[in-house]
């Protein structure tokens, strides 16, 4: 499949050398919406929520009267956390996506202290809050939501993008109750479909991301997290709790599953079994 071109953020956003361009995929194409957008154009409304590096506000774009959400990120906090790459990636990836199941990205700009991301406003808020409030969803509703998220993920994968951090907190609800994927800080454009970075939230991490050394995984990580998410829709709880005990059980389960595989050709060979994370953790080998 031909690699989808990702537009790179070429402008120097961060004060130090940390601003070097992310050089992952393909040639650069400048995106310079900062010429057109500035804070004075917006009437700032109520805060919609708080993210890791700042707040999100409801805003009105004065020239058009358009209502949107403005995500304000604090540069010092981003640099302090070494998260420049995530923010850069969020802008690069998100600005290239256009799908009804994904929060639209309208543009970005920055000043000395902050980065502003102008995005579509999701009036239904976080799916997480709805799920917590209602406990769980009916099968009909869970299936509808799972199908909508699957469609958005299928679109992402068709653009060679993995989300890698799918969870109810990163899914917003649109005006008509539809699912809208948000937060692309951990997503990555990976035409080779193979990655080696450990990321995402522990509850949702697939076993292939937990392998020791340099775990290799591909877009199928998003299928795993859709499974976890659907379980959560139906029961109100994540199938794997984020406790060390549950994580251990899950790794042990992966070991057993890889041996109890119906297809003999797919059964894990013994050399791999002996280097499985569960064995390595408990058996000191000389
Ligand atoms: P984030 O920084 O993306 O994690 O966003 C922090 C919180 O702000 C989210 O958990 C939502 O509650 C809220 N939020 C973010 N983006 C939007 C949006 N486009 N529309 C409505 N609320 C949002």
From TrEMBL:
Which Pfam families does the protein's record reference? Pkinase
- The covalent link annotated as Glycyl lysine isopeptide (Lys-Gly) (interchain with G-Cter in SUMO2) occurs at 167
- Locate the Protein kinase domain: which residues? 42-279
Q: What InterPro entries does its record include?
A: Aur-like, Kinase-like_dom_sf, Prot_kinase_dom, Protein_kinase_ATP_BS, Ser/Thr_kinase_AS
Q: What is the top EC class of this enzyme, as a single word?
A: transferase
Keywords associated with the record:
ATP-binding, Kinase, Nucleotide-binding, Serine/threonine-protein kinase, Transferase
**Catalytic site residues?**
165 (proton acceptor)
Q: Which GO terms describe its biological process?
A: attachment of spindle microtubules to kinetochore; homologous chromosome segregation; meiotic spindle checkpoint signaling; regulation of cytokinesis; regulation of mitotic cell cycle spindle assembly checkpoint; regulation of organelle assembly; response to mitotic cell cycle spindle assembly checkpoint signaling; sister chromatid segregation
Q: What is its EC number?
A: 2.7.11.1
Name the SMART domains on file. Answer: S_TKc
Q: Where does ATP bind?
A: 52, 71, 120-122, 169-170, 183
Which domain of life, per UniProt?
Eukaryota
Protein name per Swiss-Prot or TrEMBL: Aurora kinase
Q: Whose protein is this, by species?
A: Parascedosporium putredinis
């Amino acid at each position: 499949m031909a690699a989808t071109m990702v537009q790179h953020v070429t402008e120097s956003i961060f004060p130090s050398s940390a601003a070097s361009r992310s050089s992952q995929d393909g040639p650069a194409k400048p995106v310079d919406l900062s010429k057109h957008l500035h804070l004075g154009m917006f009437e700032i409304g109520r805060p919609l929520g708080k993210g890791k590096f700042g707040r999100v506000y409801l805003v009105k774009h004065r020239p058009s009267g358009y209502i949107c959400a403005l995500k304000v990120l604090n540069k010092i906090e981003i640099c302090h956390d070494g998260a420049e790459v995530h923010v850069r990636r969020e802008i690069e990836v998100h600005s290239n996506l256009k799908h009804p199941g994904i929060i639209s990205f309208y543009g970005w700009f920055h000043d000395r202290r902050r980065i502003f991301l102008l995005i579509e406003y999701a009036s239904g808020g976080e799916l997480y809050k709805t799920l917590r409030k209602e406990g769980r969803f009916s099968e009909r509703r869970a299936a509808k939501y799972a199908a909508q998220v699957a469609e958005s993920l299928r679109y992402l994968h068709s653009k060679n993008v993995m989300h890698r951090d799918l969870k109810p907190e990163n899914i917003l609800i649109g005006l008509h109750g539809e699912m809208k994927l948000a937060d692309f800080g951990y997503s990555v454009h990976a035409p080779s479909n193979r990655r080696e970075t450990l990321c995402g939230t522990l509850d949702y991490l697939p076993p292939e991301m937990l392998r020791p050394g340099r775990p290799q995984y591909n877009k199928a990580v998003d299928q795993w997290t859709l499974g976890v998410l659907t379980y959560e829709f139906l029961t109100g709880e994540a199938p794997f709790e984020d406790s060390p005990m549950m994580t251990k059980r899950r790794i042990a389960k992966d070991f057993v599953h890889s041996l109890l595989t119906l297809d003999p050709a797919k059964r894990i060979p013994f050399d791999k079994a002996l280097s499985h994370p569960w064995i390595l953790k408990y058996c000191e080998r000389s």
